[in-house]
Structure formats: C-alpha cells, structure tokens
C-alpha cells in the first residue's frame, strides 16, 4: 500500500519517513509502468474476428487491462497484426510483458529483435545510366517453363527489402494487362513517392518505419523508394521486365530480366539504411507479413535473416503463400544457416558459369590472371605499367610507412576468413593513400562484387599462390612495375559451374535438426541487376533468394493449385547435384570439397525439370503444428509428449540427427505426372547406415494417386559419428524424383556439437 501525500503528518519526522515511503512507492510504480520499456511481440494465434477493426479493438482492450487505461494502450501499441493472424507489437516493461504472457489467450510474448539484410557487399550506391533500347519480349530465350507460365504473368511476388526504384527500366509496365482483380494491396504515399509510382508492374508498395530515430529517418526516403539499391536489385532479379543490352562497361553483357519477367511486384519496405548498416526489426517484418496475407501476394521473397518470426511465416504459408528465404552469408562454417523452418524454402548460393579474367603483366613480361571488374576510362586508350609495391596485409598500420600514391599495391590475406568483410576496410586504406590500383591475394573465393568500392581504382582479385608469385617478383626487382589489363568476360563451359559459393551458410539447422537445410541452391555470385537507374553486380544470398522466388512464381503460374510444399518438393527433387561436365558439384570451403546436402540441399535448381517433377511430397500446412509447436515459442500449445519427431513430416528430404537404433520414417508421394505410372526406388545409403524402402515399387493409376511408404534406417555400427549423406530416388523412364538424406549415428547425447 502506498501513502497518499494528503495524509495528515504530525511530526516532521513522521512526515519525512512518510515522504520517503511515498517517493519509494512512486519510484516503484514508475518503474513498473514506465521503467525500461522494450518493444515486445505479443502473439495470440488465429484471429477471432473476420473484421480487422474488431481484432485491433480487442488488442487495445487487452492492453488496456494490463496498462490501466485506453490512452496508455494506444500510446504503447506500435503494430496491430489483424489480417493473417492476431497479435501486436507494443512498448512494455518486463513486468507488463510477464502479465500479458500470463493471460490464457496469449500464446507467446517475445522481445523484438533487429536483423540484417543478407549481403556481402558494402552499401555504396552504384548507379550509372546506360543508353539502351526499349524492352522487347519477342527476344526471350526459348524456355519451356517461361513459356508455359506466360513469363509469370499475373503472379504477384512480394519483396521484403529496402524498397524499390520505380524509374528503373526493369520495372516498366509497358504491355501489361490490368492488375489482377484479387489484389487488395495499397500504394502507400510518402517522400518522393506518388501514386503514379505504382503501376501495372509495381502494383503495391508499403513501408514500415517504426523504431527509426530522426537521424535514420533523414538518411532514408520515408516512403517505399529505395535509397540503398538492394531492394531494387533483388526485385529486378525476381521479376524484372526484359531489358536488353545491359552491362557494366561491357562486362556481363546481355538481356537483364527477372526469373519471372511478367510477374507483378508488391513492395514491402522493411529494411532501412542506418548510419552503419541496413537494419530491419521483427515487428516490421510481422506487420508486412500480416499485410501481405491481406493483400493477396502469391510468393514472398525475403533475403533477410530472421530467427523469431516463425509463426508469422507459418500463418502466411497456411494462407497459401510460398515463402523464399536466404540461407545467410556466414559460410562456409557449418551450423550457421538461418531461416530453417520447415514451412519455408531456404536458398543457398552458387557461382554461375561466368568469370571476368583480368591479365596482370609484370615488368619481366610474366603474365598472371586474376579477376576484376576493371575497365578503361573513356580518355584512356590502353593500360600502362605502374610502380608496384608490397602492402602486406594492407591494414592502416601495414601501409603506414609505404608510399602508394599512383602505384599498384599488393595485399595478401594469409589468414583464411570472411575476406568479404575485410575488403571494404582495406580498399578504403588503399584508396586514401591515392593508389592507382590493388591486387588482392586471397584463398580461392570469388566475391568480385566486394570490390565495388574500388570505383575508379583498378582492383584485381587473385588466388593466394599468384599473390606469392607477385611478391617474389617484387622482391627480385629494384623498381617493380605492373600493368593491369581491362577485364574480359567469358561464359559457358570454360568456367566450371555451378559451385556452392564460399559465403553461403551451411547446415545443419540448429533450431530444426530434423529438417534438412538448405533446401536448394541458386546463382548468387556476381549477379547483374538493377540498382537505381542503372545496373550493377552484387553477390550474396540476397541474390540467390530472388532467383528461386522468380522460379516459384513461374511454377505457380503453371500449377496454380499446388501447395507450397508441392512447389518446394518439385524444386528439391529435380535439382542437380552435378556440374556441367557431369562431375559432382563442388563447394568452396577450406579445403574445397565435394558439395553435400548441408551445402546445397537437393542441389542446384533446375527450373525446367521442376515444372514436371512426376511425384511430389505434399504437406497439409496444419501438420506443422503437430511436429514443431515446441520450436516456435508457442509453449502454451506445445505438448512434448504428443509432439512427433520432425523427421516424420512429409518433407522432400530426411534428416536424422541422432540415430541410435533402427527407425522407420514415413513418407507419401502424390503423382502429378501421367495417371498410370510405375516408379522404382533407388537408394544410396549413407556410409555406416543401411536404408530400405517398403514397398520398393509404387504403381499409380486413376484411383491410386497417393502412395505411402516406409523408409527404415539402421545404423551398421555403434559410434559417436559425424553426418553422412545419401539419397532416395523414385524413378521411371521420364522422371527421377530424388531426395537427400543426412544421418548421424550417436551412442550418447551430444554436448558440444561438431558437424
Ligand atoms: C514517381 O514520383 C515522382 C514524384 O514523387 C516523380 O518525379 C517520378 O517521375 C515518378 N516515377 C515514375 C516511374 O512514375
Ligand atoms: C618484354 O616484352 C617486350 C615486347 O615483347 C620486349 O620488348 C621486352 O624486352 C621484354 N622485357 C623483358 C624484361 O623480357
Ligand atoms: C581521364 O579522366 C579522369 C576523370 O574522368 C581523370 O581523372 C584522368 O586524369 C584522365 N586521364 C588522362 C590520361 O587524361
Ligand atoms: C602511422 O605512423 C604514425 C607515426 O609513426 C603514428 O602516429 C600512427 O599512429 C600510425 N598509424 C597507424 C594506423 O598505425
Ligand atoms: C563480354 O562478352 C560480350 C558477349 O560475348 C561481348 O560482346 C563483350 O565485348 C565482352 N566484353 C568485354 C569487355 O570483353
Ligand atoms: C499432453 O498430452 C498427453 C497425452 O495426450 C496428456 O496426457 C497431457 O495432459 C498433455 N499435457 C498438456 C500440458 O497438455
Ligand atoms: C489402381 O490400383 C489399385 C491397387 O493397385 C487397384 O485396386 C485399382 O483397381 C486400380 N484402379 C484402376 C482404375 O485401375
């Protein structure tokens, strides 16, 4: 009980102690009501009203009972989630959050988190105007899936990113029909964004700035407009219209177009440029997911790292949306993969069959080859020899005593690590010294776009051994010199591809170890796409994610009634595990190795096979709760005793993280090919494991469209083992339906895990 200040005080002493007590009480109640408030996400599950206004009103009521008044509730609530699911984001003290969590209708209360976009490149805006011809659809390269899907016309792809640059030619709506009538989204106006910025191509745009401070607001357009370039790049990769003759100074020449060039784009700007990086928060992503469900999006492209919004993504899936996330750029370490919920598609990144060889010639006429995006300026007719110096690691310290003005600097990174993170700093060091160019010697990784910051400097990436040869030359000369030729571009079979990119995050999933992740790999290295009014290269899982989103849009156009699980299955089971020469695909790592399912899931995406997969592993989206309620912070609906092991979910893969004795795993396949079909099983057992399938043959006809089968998995020895890999393929003369298998034999619990 607190004293009231109007109490009658007889002695000064009593007055003093009463006052002290009163102040204490006041402080306690202040800290309860106002003390360190944090943003919390309160999740209530399915919404209880169809009317969104009623759902929001119920949120205000609930919050009012906890905070004491309607006014405080309105001041505290930031987002009300009311379309696809029920919940809200609000500023709360820890005690208030606890009080809410204790309410029976509340499923979870979790603190908001900030996340990063997935990219390996720094965020300098790289815009350049190219004078090119208007788009021309007739010159489309022939492609079965593209044509069958009518280039994705009338499929709506939602992009969760930094917004969009609507003036880019990649977003011209020339020749588009009316906006699909089912579309219920809006064109939210804002700074440098008018109603006319939406079109028949960009059919909707929203932005979610909650939590940005004043400085961050000033660094951004407070509208769907993209100041950064990232969202424009990903949107044009997923759904950019056809733009011919796009290149960067003659490099990577070709037709720029998205995977689904006729698909419609819905922009959800959830990521914001801050002084240091690009940030996004869980509360904004949930608000955008809620809106996307309302608006009628078909496919969502989310090149972002998220760990705590699984319920939002699950609701979107249950409402018929297919979600495509990136695996992350924390590779090649294992167990770092993000976004591994079984209901989303998680994409790894590969290198494509294009490279940009660049000749560097020393004063002794020795010529070595690296890679660069270097080109001659208009007033330069040929390359010239320049003085060459050794800059060591090219840290500020290492360059301190070296005069590099007008010279080419050799930088050697002997420590193997995430070089893409070091490069921007080193480039700044070299640039501020006035260098003409730089040769960066790294262990084999190819992240050319990390040299974007070189703008105006000749930056070449070479393998570490070429770096050592160059150093030897420098050591042997009094006045070492070097000439850097402009980059050439070669494509096709000379470049072994695809190959899993160094930075691509690897499995297994820590949060969902019974779900094999990633699902699929797609191109994500040196991708040329729209940035501002021009085009530029970029690398990262942000680039591979929209490739898959575009392909899913095409598949959805051909198969409008397929579930998200059927679409994912089609992509995974038809993927390729070989390179263009039929050799096993490799993964960049240290050391380089043959890729396994934790690098690429089913393999490298094969869109034209995915449109006709033969069989699919389908899942009723309600099943996810049976298996994974306990992973989703839904503690109130989680019952450990009735939760089934995740590996029984009908996924197009099998992952057994702890195999102690023989187990049987259930799967079912649905025939989506010819009605009468016979499939035989083909098993590649992982080392140390015996796998059997029962029945080994599946016969489909007009009445028997779905077949269940059992996969028994038996350890052959008792060890505390590592993961080993295999596959199960159902095949007939037309189809090969392959799923990857990862198994680890254990005899005791793992404490510190090593993949
Ligand atoms: C978008 O709106 C701005 C005004 O805010 C206008 O200057 C610009 O031309 C518009 N762009 C397109 C593609 O309509
Ligand atoms: C390098 O080649 C040029 C032209 O072929 C020749 O003139 C020059 O002498 C050579 N230099 C050395 C060091 O071999
Ligand atoms: C070429 O032009 C750039 C600026 O565009 C200038 O910095 C450079 O000095 C010029 N080079 C020559 C050889 O004139
Ligand atoms: C470079 O050298 C100067 C003078 O020796 C020193 O004051 C400075 O801290 C050094 N800078 C770095 C980055 O090491
Ligand atoms: C790159 O390749 C294209 C097509 O093969 C070619 O037209 C272009 O000249 C090449 N650019 C350079 C700089 O080699
Ligand atoms: C979990 O399920 C079991 C079996 O149905 C039941 O006995 C138990 O009460 C449930 N526990 C909770 C917390 O609901
Ligand atoms: C399909 O196969 C099942 C069992 O294999 C059989 O019972 C059924 O009669 C067949 N239906 C047709 C239409 O052939």
UniProtKB/TrEMBL annotation:
The active site is at residues 161, 230, 542. Residues 649-743 form the Subtilisin-like protease fibronectin type-III domain. It comes from the Eukaryota. GO terms for molecular function: serine-type endopeptidase activity. Residues 152-578 form the Peptidase S8/S53 domain. GO terms for biological process: proteolysis. Residues 1-33 form the signal peptide. Keywords: Hydrolase, Protease, Serine protease, Signal. SUPFAM superfamilies: Subtilisin-like. Transmembrane segments: none annotated. Residues 40-117 form the Inhibitor I9 domain. Belongs to the peptidase S8 family. This is Uncharacterized protein.
